Amino acid sequence: MIVAFSVTPLGVGDDVGEYVADAVRVVRESGLPNRTDAMFTSVEGEWDEVMDVVKRAVAAVEERAPRVSLVLKADIRPGVTDGLTSKVETVERHLAD
Predict the structure, then answer these.
(1) Which range is the signal sequence, renumbered to this chain (predicted)?
(2) What is the span of the domain harbouring residue 88?
(3) H-run or E-run covering 71
(4) What is the pLDDT of residues 2-57, one digit of tens each?
(5) Which candidate, 7, 19, 31, 90, has a CA 20 to 30 Å from the CA of 53?
(6) DSSP H/E element including 44
(7) Rounded distance between C-alpha atoms, residue 83 and residue 11, angstroms
C-alpha cells in the first residue's frame, strides 16, 4: 500500500517547516520507501507498518504543537511493491510517447 499524508501543526504561526521536518524525519528513519514533495509525504509498505509510521510522524509534531491536522490518502493494492516508482515511471512513459 501507498499512503500519502500531510501533517500540519496548528497554533504555531505561519512558519511550520521545522515541525514538518520532525514528521518527515520519522518517515525517513523508518526505512520504508518514501518520497516527500511540497504537499505530501508518501510512504510504501504493509498496512500496519505504514500506519505505525504515520502515527509516529503525527506524534512527533504533536510533541511541540498544541494541535495537529492530518490529511491521508491510501492506495491499498495487495501484492504490489515499488508502486512509488513504477506509478511515476508509467506516467513518464506515456508522456514520452
Answers:
(1) none
(2) 2-96
(3) strand 67-75
(4) 999 999 999 999 999 999 999 999 999 999 999 999 999 999 999 999 999 999 99
(5) 90
(6) strand 41-44
(7) 35
Q: Quote the DSSP letter at residue 60.
A: H
Task: Specify the pTM.
Answer: 0.89
Q: How far apart are CA 35 and CA 43, in angstroms?
A: 7
How many other C-beta atoms lie within 10 A of the C-beta of residue 8? 16
C-alpha to C-alpha distance for 27 and 86, rounded to whole angstroms: 20
Distance of CA 19 to the CA centre of its chain: 14
In 11-57, at which residue ranges do the beta strands (DSSP E only) sit?
Answer: 34-36, 41-44
Supply the CATH number for residue 66's domain.
3.30.70.930
**Among candidate residues 40, 19, 42, the one with its CA nearest the CA of residue 32:** 42
Residue 92 has what DSSP assignment? H
